Amino acid sequence: MKKVITYGTFDLLHLGHINILKRAKEKGDYLIVAISTDEFNALKGKKSYFSFNERKILLESLKFVDEVIPETDWDQKIRDVIENHVDIFVMGDDWEGKFDFLNNYCQVIYLPRTEGISTSKIKEDLQVN
Ligand code: C2G
């Protein structure tokens, strides 16, 4: 069984998230999603609208997501890859190059982001309308 992992906040779940999760799953047989906790979001300078638990329930309801784990710090990725026997690490290409150190442990793939949509754009658009 080929296992894939990806990381993110996944707030206000939108098609950009769906597209990358779907494409990540297509790379293997089992997709683990590490969702940033509210505390880690604060470290990332982000405040999500939905709590960790709400974002976890939303992602767990997607047919191509097999497991959701918490992302609590920047340094857990190597441990996650080893402990979960992950074969492929996938991230959007806004992170291109940032996680190449994982190449020693698994295949690293950056996928093109979905243009024209983001959580911050949704929030901005809702402000004005
Ligand atoms: N994404 C995408 N297209 C968009 C928006 C997001 O492909 N229009 C992808 C991002 O590239 C990322 C994933 O969706 O791979 C999750 O995006 P965010 O929730 O914004 O996560 P981020 O803040 O990038 O956190 O340790 C890694 C971090 O937790 C990533």
Explain this structure to me?
This protein is an alpha/beta fold and 129 residues long. It has five helices and five strands, in the order E-H-E-H-H-E-H-E-E-H. It has helices at residues 15-26, 38-43, 52-60, 77-83, 119-128; strands at 3-8, 30-36, 67-71, 88-92, 107-111. A five-stranded parallel beta sheet has the order 3-2-1-4-5. The longest helix has 12 residues, at 15-26. The mean pLDDT is 97. Bound molecules: [cytidine-5'-phosphate] glycerylphosphoric acid ester. [cytidine-5'-phosphate] glycerylphosphoric acid ester (C2G) is lined by residues 7-10, 16-17, 20, 36, 44, 71, 91-92, 94, 113-114, 117-118.
Distance between the ends: 47 Å
Mean pLDDT: 97
DSSP strand count: 5
Helix content: 25-40%
| Overall 3D shape | globular
- Give the topology string: H per helix, E per strand: EHEHHEHEEH
Number of helices: 5
Task: Report the portion of residues in β strands.
Answer: 15-25%
Write the layout of secondary structure elements.
Blueprint: E1 3-8, H1 15-26, E2 30-36, H2 38-43, H3 52-60, E3 67-71, H4 77-83, E4 88-92, E5 107-111, H5 119-128
Parallel strand pairs: 1-2, 1-4, 2-3, 4-5
The structure holds [cytidine-5'-phosphate] glycerylphosphoric acid ester.
Features:
129 residues, alpha/beta, five-stranded parallel β-sheet
Give the structure's gist in a few sentences.
The protein has 129 residues and is an alpha/beta fold. Helices cover 34% and strands 22% of the residues.
